[in-house]
Structure formats: structure tokens, C-alpha cells
Amino acid sequence: QVQVVESGGGLVQPGGSLNLSCVAPGFEFDLYTMGWYRQAPGDERERVAQISSKFIRDYADSVKGRFTISRDNAKDTVYLQMTDLKPEDTAVYYCHAQSDYGPWNYWGQGTPVTVSS
Asked: By percentage, how much of the chain surpasses pLDDT 70?
């Protein structure tokens, strides 16, 4: 059974750090591009970072130098390390899996991140 489960969100002060995790068993994890997206109230969902099955990373300009995406295929897990957080990073963060070899894709339920003093 496919599962995509995020964790690690919460409340943090500006300048602080958070580490998000996404466990995604039930499919061939190592053949999927894994991504982190976020959606703030009233905004469209945007891609924050992604890491391909070949470990090629890509980041949104707004988070370059502050966020790091990584994956552990042995644990079916993708991580998002977030540093120097800003109030504009406040959003619900979603994990997404996209097959590199077909149309299959899966979303998690999201984990909220609030950056506020």
C-alpha cells in the first residue's frame, strides 16, 4: 500500500531551522523523483526542492542556499533541511513522488511550518 507521510513541521522563530521528513513506502521509491512543495494561505502550491532518482537536486530561487533536500533510498525517505527560516517560508509543506518512468505520482497530506516571533 502506497503511503506518503510527512513529519517535522512546527513553529520556529525567524532565523531558526527545521528538518522535515517524508516516509514513502509501497512503491519503487528509488525510481521516483521526490519533491517538496509548499502552499501558503491564498497562494498556489509551489515546488520548493526536488531530488531525482539519480540524485540531481533542484531548488526554488527563494530557498537556494538555505534549504537542502536529500534522500535515503534504503529507508524510503526524503528529507528537507531548512535553515535561516523567514516568515515568508510559512506554509503547509507537502511531499510528492513522481515516477521517472511513467505518470504515477503520489502526494502526502502535508505538514505545517510557521515562522514567527
From this structure: 100
